[in-house]
Amino acid sequence: MSAERAEGLLIRGGTIVDGTGAAAHRGDLRIRGDRIAEIAPSLAPRAGERAVDASGCFVAPGFIESHTHYDGPMWWAPDMDPLPGYGVTTSIMGNCGFSAAPISDDRAARDEMVDIFAFFEDIPKQPLQQLPWDWRRWSDYRRSLERRVAPATNYGAFVGHIALRFAVMGAAAWERAATSREVAQMVELLEDALVAGALGLSTNALDHDDRGRSVPSFHADEEEWAALFDTLERHPAATLQIALDIFIHQTAAEWVARFARMIGRRPLRVQFGGLIPTLEFQAPLGPPLRALFEEFKRSGRDYWAGYVHTPTTTVVNIDRTLIFAQSDEFVWQEVVSAASDDAKSALLRDPGWRARARDSWDHEAHEFSPFGDPSKLLLLASANGAGPVGLGLVEYAAQLGVHASDAMAEWFLRNGLRSIVHMKPFPMAEATVLELIQDPMTVGNLNDAPAHGKMMCGAGENVLLLTDWVRDRKAISLEQAVHVLTGKAARHFNLRDVGELAVGKRADVTVFALDEIECRPMQKAFDVPDGRGGVEWRWTRPPAPVRLTLVNGVPTFEAGKPTEARPGRLLTPA
User: Roughly how many angstroms between the first and final C-alpha of the chain, as a whole number?
Assistant: First the structure.
């Protein structure tokens, strides 16, 4: 099949799972242009129409990635690898308060935003700096994006609260509340974004930087919040998305209660990322947060809980990562921030630094981080083959007769600075995840792709709902899993023409055989521009593979590999 849109396309002989949660049924699907034209039990081919045999396969709406950070990477990687091979047709970006627009006329203020985006999402700063930056308002950004970038998936985008603050306040956004005049400017910029088609506003009650500074959204006062909420209220299709801290300082319950009080009776749709914790170590947070969630439902608030369906894990490197800073492990962060390999090596060898690093692991790193409990760490990959690989860090430390922090320093020195340490997955509260999958007021498949590209690969984990939860555990039905990945997500973001297989909807479709797909193991791809004419690596995955992915009626994945087609478009809420 050509990567170009055919005159007509007929997908025959498959089992249709329409994304609504309704029972699957045998049926054929006819596509004309970028829309679904007909669905029926048996459709006769028409002259000039291409036929796709879907026998033994499920035919579903294209999958929606509910929480990504492609704002920067889609500019230099419009193929959106590996999403097409996992049936993904829509990516939601601009999350956690970070977005590429609006920006300030002041270059220093723009650099602040680039720096914070690069640090918190582990996205290389050099290619970010080389974006055209020929916009100031979000509406200008949309025009530039649509003119310059043709991605392989459709996309929707929030405007980030942190970007709003930097655009108006510059570096002062780190330090103080906004003045009334500055609040009015933020409102004007948010209004521009919502009129231009932004999904809504994302904000952050989670992160701090490598110096321990809370992100600028923490400095918003109630006047600022009220003005932003009033602006969202004027746009009924808009959503407020909030990143909560259920990992580091575990302040989620305090912030959820505060937001609920500040929002008051405004009829806003809100997504709380991490409202119901899903890891076993977070169990003490569960009761107060669950009580809030149940009260929101009883009172009819349009408040949704965002969650992940996979155990949280990561890999640790000393090249570029925020895992040390986010663990309150600022001594090891000095190694990551060092300007050169020689500087990194010098720190790792320095007895004074090692003493501070041991003390930090013992007394500063937060309890549930990899460094507060180094038994979670495994020596994953050696850059030079010296080894040992696969051994636990604590066991390696015992072999050397040193503290675990010293052992990790030794391992990087002996194996090369590009070596990798792996953190064992946190045990997951599977019963809680099952409840969230089934709850009508939840948003699933949050995975952060392609952020933290040297820590993990969230892309591809969407199919674990189909393989792990449906095929292997038989914990949920296929219809439920597809609904989470499609229609339920589309309804939350008010994306009216995707997420379901229905006549008149966009022809965003995936065809897959349940016994063929897997979330494939991570592998390195050397394709990230380094800003100096070379490339650096990131984690990706081989395709699942699905049989076929269509975006707006155009194949983006077929015959086991991605096509060259880039038919993605901006989706706006309605």
Answer: 33
Are 156 and 251 found together in one domain?
Answer: yes
384 φ/ψ angles, rounded to the nearest 5 degrees: -120, 0
- Into how many domains does the chain fold? 3
Residue 214 lies in a domain: yes
Q: Is 505 inside any structural domain? A: no
Please give the average pLDDT of every successive group of 10 residues along the chain, which has 574 residues.
62 98 98 97 93 97 97 96 98 96 94 87 87 97 97 98 97 97 98 98 91 92 98 98 92 97 98 94 93 97 96 83 87 94 98 97 88 92 93 96 98 95 90 97 95 88 98 97 98 98 98 98 92 88 98 97 98 98
Element (H, E) at 87: none
CA–CA distance, 211 with 328 (Å, rounded to integer): 9
Handedness of CA 332, 334, 336, 338 (dihedral sign): negative
Q: Please report whether residue 570 resides in a domain.
A: no
Q: Give the Cα-Cα-Cα angle 380, 116, 172 (nearest 5 degrees).
A: 150
Is there a contact between 223 and 179 (Cβ–Cβ < 8 Å)?
Answer: no
Taking the model in full, what pTM does it have?
Answer: 0.94
Note whether residue 1 is domain-resident: no
Query: Quick one: 308 and 330 in the same domain?
Result: no
Structural domain for 104, as ranges = 64-313+426-494
